[in-house]
Design goal:
alpha+beta, 12% strand, globular, 3-stranded antiparallel sheet, 12 strands, 9 helices, 4-stranded mixed sheet, homotetramer
Chain lengths: 417, 417, 417, 417
């Protein structure tokens, strides 16, 4: 925890804002919706609500003398994966928890909110303030998961109900893709400075890059349809071996949530099903699909170092969760720079998720937050339209297994020079 | 459908009663509880509510000219297994249906209730009245499943919440087990007469039985504990080969819902966890366990013909759902007869579930009700404390796979003479 | 063991004959062929050779004072399923045993043959002679399995090699199917007399049968093709529920070993692939397929009691293993009786494999021979062209799970009168 | 194929040598041994013999005008994973191929050897000579797999037969582990020059390294036992998340082939079971185990760039296959340098197997050789005592999934400076 502790007042304000956002995301949902777990990798909304609350209880409040847990079983129920904090419910069983009821979970949130506010208003040490800030970033991560998980739950329901009916505006014509050159060389990447970052973004370190070119925008649905039309899902030579196996085993024919009806592609969005537009960004592709599409395009995926080298000089702008679109905005002409680096859709990189040179796992249970997952996953960069803006940094490393498709994951191409 | 159609007035009264009972069973449950599907074999309460309603719509109302379905997708969502009625949602996905909401399903029930009442009050042909009666028996079957499925859902929740808090009275001392002789010979079994019965209870037919002895009461938890204490779950010589495989694979150590805490056996009941009493009936054993326990006892399970031969002369009495105990009553001295033949707990028989000689599958979709399941299942007899009394007949054949444990299934022993 | 012990001289002769037949069956096979295990349910020839030998060692020779096992590990390797005789190799691993080599296994056979011959020539008690006779019947059972298992191993090889090149003669025109009436009534079935029978054929007992009709011959490939052509494998209404699931899951389109090439059906036989002839018997169908075919035919499968009631008065004749055809003979006109009751192809019955009334499991390890499998299997009757004639009796009950297809299993239809 | 084509004479000599070595490796094995496939990831020896031969036929001889394949089905049977070359037998079925017989496969080898010798002696273009050289390296790769696969097959046999009885000498005392410093900086890694290398070793490229320390020798069994004794296999905090899951799921308690008997560790070797010596190298650990052991040691695994930076200056020496030990030699004092960099045991690195910057997949079917596996695997470096010396280069990148344990994979530790 090498970052500066925020001031109590700032933290209190931020605490209220983050917790409030989570509550707001649940507004369109019924208690029933919030219980559904549509696959082992996803969690019910209610579980997210309780787990993020438990995080504050377990990592902050439990440090206070005389702390008594709100409920003796909630540690067991709402611990996600911290072995250091004891046994826990098996992950695929989260959707079976009709009890505690949503009302009880909301009381749990209120209880912890009260204790946290009291703590932050008075006597919170800088250590507890840092832990609280981690808890807030943790909750912001779960805000994105709440939305991707409920999209999976509702999108798999044969009734295809919308999360909310207001669709995002879709105007806009995607500009032609241009190749932006970068000279490579010795570059520093990773988090620097006193602001908050996760341990996995550190230490800042030097890498040597060859010259490369990066696509000026993300891939569109039109780009991707050309891949589909060219037999992309039936040509093994375009795929990684494990990717082809996954494609065959899962019967992939198109991105997740795409369905062909009477010769036209439709996609399920958080505002319900609608036609796929050629100018909008393709999302919900796995790393395997992104990689095959890149190969078919005569390109490749960028490494995370390449991405960060370019991103370093571009102002962070784009549709984050704060824009409340819940779907990526189409690319617009931006005067010749590299567009859509931030927000919109996570960008698969070619980089396996591994420790940065000199990385050290933090002490204690929080050491399990990031480090133990550094295997069999790929890094995604840039944030998405579901990522809270204040949660994001240029050095942010998101990571998912190569077959994951339910995140808002898109594609930016790269090429050697 | 060889049974007499009930009079419109009787049917209307019965319709109200059965539908009302289903509603009453849901009273202790929240919308969240009613969504949980704890294993593929079990269904959410909400699904039961909609499926039993769909049954009336699909088999009765759809016969009416000009019928329009309540919702175009409900046939897909709430058809259980009728291939003749089209595609349907895969069974393990029933627990993902947060939509339609419970409120919508209740409106569906009201809508169908209105249409059914109107039909029964006016112009229902004898054929439609017979179909309606089948629908009512169908719903009564699901009443028992609602309770066994919710017991599984709540009993698997680490909080072990009760379905309702009022425990059944437990007074009573189990009388010693006596062996009641039956001379065997040529016996007629199966349904006779003009009253309602399922097709699988017909035709009534003759069987030849050797003399045999039947236990005067069901096996108690005390009886079963002696089996446990004698290493019953670790001695393969007591088990069928498939049973031993199941026992090893599933890690069975005792009946479902039993747990040993500090050297004592507890069981989860619909009123929550409580100590196991030696004098109460053992339930929640699979056929494999019942068979192994019988072998260890130097006995065997009765065939369904043996059971029915004895039951023919005994008045139907015992705790059915109407007694509202939700747990079997202990055996009581009954003056020397064969006790507990009815209600309390289903009794595993040694008889595979097959067609009676001369059995004919009914025409149409209703032919799928019973006939297509006549393989890989065993017959249980006698009803349980969750079976509605008016749903039960001496000729009633319940059936489950040999490893099923979540029904209220107990053991009655038999012996050759 | 209620049968009479054979005389030492007869037994010695029979021992030589049975063991010699086993050796002869292996003549066309290489050491490599004899090692293949093509599915968990099948065993390598070499394993059969060793297991049948171990049976004599474990059940006969081990009874002799001072007996020392041939090899300390062979009990572990070659015990099939006798829990009473200790741990054993997991079944799916039998195909990994390149050691002991075939040569070692042949030495094992010679060693045990020597000891058995010495025993039988001198001092064998009637008990040991009875055990020896069981061992010989056991080996004859495995002779059939050697052939069905190697057919599966070679038939699954893309090269489709033949077991031996000499095809069985195929002349013959199937006579029209006639329905033979039987009046039903009280019938005795099961083994009677002092000759050898397995425990599961006893006790002889009385059953009451309704009048019925039995097909005069087995179903032919022509009969079955009509079922195929009428969409038999795509109409769920013809199938048991579990059968339809198996059909879908396994992708069944026709009997095992059938393949359509350029519009014509071919089948793999022990003499290699050849065209399917309409007049020959259909084999390699599961119970589920036999049952669906019967339903499509407007008929049903006979019960084992019906089968035995008819078979009681018919002389045992037909192609058994001794005829050395290795494929069923086509039906021929036989003057109006019920043909093909014996040999040719096992006939699926509608009867689940359960204990006869009054059945008692034998004491000791041999009690595991039959009794513990009395669940989830169906009875087949009549023997096949791979069954040694001297192994067969009218009361013989073969049994397999309903989805088993690699045995020589065919179909005889029945109807209610 | 950027390497120089060898001269025809050199190539002919090398061809004879490599093919002869393969034959020699099979000498201790029977036809039965050579058929066993003990897990889907392993292949039968016979399959290796045929596949390596098919490689020459498919990639070299098929280029010749008028070429006719030796057998029309061998492409289907012995193609490993080249989608561009058509359909193929599913991998887990390789162990079912009793036909073609070993004798036929040996004839196949002779046939192809004849054609190859004739080609190399006369008219081979430089392109065909390059393809031949690839085929020889390919066969050398399979030489190592023949030995690791047969070790798995024989080691899993309850009889635990040895591959050959001659054990490797075990004298030697492991020197204390020292930490060798490296200053880091800009380093070039990857293959350079005109000699042969696989595509995945290219292009040579620059990386920036921080200063680091590398262990002076590989980890010994004594080192690893200390990890075991300290509860290494029951402390999740030492493991990657996926690694801990694998450990639990597979029940790992120690390296593969280790077994505790009466309180002492034994291991199965190619010379049969023997005691584990503290001074010998630990092998047969997965990446997950290597990583956990490193973390427990207060160290980490080196990256492949770190490894290659050190290896660049060390002469290639150590036990390769040519030493014919078939087991790693213990470390010896070597005067202070970094020992055991080559031969002995493959060294897990922390580097996921990905493309080098600027990597280009070769055209055609050979493009599937390496590139399509660049996901979900980790790089191992250094060769092993089963690797042919002439097959090895400092830039050689071996790769296996993180849970693979049947290779001769050991551990070298690293630390940040």
């Amino acid at each position: 925890m090498d970052f500066e502790a925020p001031s109590p007042a700032d933290l209190l304000a931020r605490y209220g804002e983050v917790r409030g956002t989570t509550a707001r995301l649940c507004e369109p949902l019924s208690a029933e919706d919030m219980l559904v777990q549509s696959m082992p990798q996803a969690s019910p909304t209610k579980w997210h609500l309780a787990h993020t609350t438990w995080f504050f209880e377990a990592f902050v409040l439990a440090e206070l003398p005389g702390h008594r847990p709100f409920h003796e079983s909630f540690g067991y129920l709402f611990n996600s994966y911290y072995n250091a904090l004891g046994d826990r419910l098996s992950r695929p069983k989260r959707g079976l928890l009709s009890r505690p009821s949503l009302a009880q979970v909301m009381r749990y949130r209120e209880h912890v909110d009260g204790a946290m506010r009291q703590l932050l208003a008075s006597r919170a040490s800088s250590n507890l303030r840092r832990l609280t800030l981690i808890g807030l970033h943790h909750e912001q991560q779960h805000q994105e998961l709440i939305l991707t998980d409920i999209k999976h739950a509702l999108g798999g329901n044969p009734l295809k109900p919308s999360y909310r009916d207001r669709p995002a505006a879709l105007a806009g014509v995607a500009p032609p893709l241009r190749w932006m050159e970068h000279p490579g060389g010795l570059i520093d990447i990773g988090h620097a400075g006193a602001g908050f970052a996760y341990d996995n973004e550190t230490p800042r370190h030097r890498v040597f890059l060859r010259p490369f070119r990066l696509a000026s925008r993300l891939a569109t649905c039109g780009d991707y349809m050309a891949f589909l039309d060219d037999g992309g899902y039936s040509r093994p030579e375009l795929w990684l071996s494990d990717g082809w196996d996954a494609c065959q085993r899962e019967g992939w024919q198109a991105p997740l949530y795409w369905e062909k009806t009477e010769g036209r592609w439709w996609q399920y969005t958080l505002a319900g099903p609608r036609r796929v537009r050629e100018d909008e960004l393709v999302i919900h592709v796995s790393f395997y699909e992104a990689d095959a599409f890149a190969r078919w395009s005569g390109a490749r995926l960028p490494t995370e170092a390449e991405w960060e080298a370019v991103a370093a000089d571009v102002p962070v702008a784009g549709s984050f969760l704060d824009a409340d679109r819940l779907h990526p905005a189409p690319a617009e002409e931006n005067g010749g720079g590299t567009a859509q680096l931030f927000g919109e859709a996570w960008q698969w990189t070619a980089s396996p998720y591994v420790a940065y040179p000199g990385y050290r796992t933090p002490e204690g249970a929080l050491g399990e937050y990031n480090g133990k997952f550094m295997c069999n996953q790929l890094v995604l960069r840039g944030g998405s339209c579901l990522t809270p803006r204040s949660h994001f940094r240029r050095s942010y490393r998101n990571f998912f297994p190569p077959d994951a498709r339910w995140q808002f994951s898109g594609v930016r191409l790269a090429r050697d020079l």
